[in-house]
Amino acid sequence: MKPRTPPSNASRNSGPGRVRIVGGRWRGTRLDVPDVAGLRPTSDRVRETLFNWLQPALPGARVLDLFAGTGALGLEAVSRGAAGAVLVERDPGLAAALTATAARLPGGEVVAVRRGDAVSMAAALPAASIDIAFVDPPFAADLWAQAFAALAPALAAEAWLYVESSAERPASPGMGWQLHRELQTREAHCALYRRAG
Predict the structure, then answer these.
(1) What pLDDT does residue 110 have?
(2) Average of pLDDT values for 64-86?
(3) Whole-model pTM?
(4) If you average pLDDT over residues 113-139, what whole number do you get?
(5) CA–CA gap between residue 113 and residue 62 (Å, rounded)
(6) Containing H/E element for 178?
(7) So what's the pLDDT on residue 46?
(8) Burial code of 106-131, b = ≥16 C-beta within 10 A, e = fewer?
(9) Taking Cα atoms as reference points, which of 92, 100, 88, 91 lies closest to residue 29?
(10) Which domains does the chain have, with CATH numbers?
(11) Which residue has the higher pLDDT, 137 or 13?
(12) What digits encode the pLDDT tens for the residues 112-123?
C-alpha cells in the first residue's frame, strides 16, 4: 500500500457494522462490528497490506491477537495459514461473538478465545510461545507500554509484532525491535516489527 492517506474505515469496510476476512480459506467471511466503546477494527485494506507483509511468516505460526475485538487480525492469520491463534477480549459480548464465530468456521477449533484483561493474560502466557502478536488496543486506554512489557517473555526469539496506534501518537515497542514496514491512515499508525537478534 502506498503511504498516502486512504479513505476512512467506515467507507472501506465491506458494509455498515461489518468487516470481512480478506484472504485464505475463510476469505469473504463477514465479522460483525457491534457498537462498543473503543472498538475500532483494522480495516480490510490495512489488513490486506499487513498480511502481504507477513505471508512468509504465517505457515505454522502461533498467533496472539491481544485486544481481539472482532477477531479480524487473529482470524485472518489462521485463514492464511497460521497453526492457531489465541484471541484475548475483555468485553463479554465480544468474547461470546468470537467463540461463536470460531465454532462455525471449518477448522476453527485452532482458535482459542480467552475472556479477560489483555495485559494480565499476556503476562501469563508460556515463555517463547508466540510467533506473531497483534497489539491494537483502544487508543484512549493507552495500554501499549503495559502490553509490550507483559508480552516480552511470551514472544519467540524472532517474533513479529504488529502495532496499531493513534496517528497523532505512534507507539513503539522500543529497544530490541526492528521496524520492518509501516503505513499511516488518517486515524492510525500501523507498524510491523521483527524482534532483533
Answers:
(1) 98
(2) 96
(3) 0.89
(4) 96
(5) 14
(6) strand 177-184
(7) 92
(8) eebeebebbbeebbebbbebeeeebb
(9) 100
(10) 9-195 (3.40.50.150)
(11) 137
(12) 999 999 999 999
User: How far apart, in whole angstroms, are the C-alpha atoms of residue 63 and residue 4?
Assistant: 29
Q: What's the rounded Cα separation, in Å, for the pair 128 and 158?
A: 10
- Work out the number of other CB atoms within 10 angstroms of the CB of residue 187: 16
Which residues, at least 6 apart from 141, have a Cβ–Cβ distance to it below 8 Å?
38
Q: Which amino acid is located at 73 in the chain?
A: L
Structure letter (DSSP) for residue 55: G
**3 state SS of 41:** coil
Judge contact between 87 and 157, C-beta under 8 A. no
The enclosing H or E element of 191 equals strand 188-195
| CA-wise closest residue to 190 among 50, 62, 80, 36 | 50
* Mean of all residue pLDDT scores within the chain: 89
Cβ–Cβ contacts within 10 Å for residue 175, how many? 6
- The DSSP annotation for 74-119 comes to HHHHHHTT-SEEEEEE--HHHHHHHHHHHHHSTTGGGEEEEES-HH
Which residue has cell 526469539?
A: 157
What percent of the chain has pLDDT above 90?
A: 80
Q: Residue 29 corresponds to which cell in the numbers above?
A: 467471511
Q: How far apart are CA 167 and CA 72, in angstroms?
A: 20
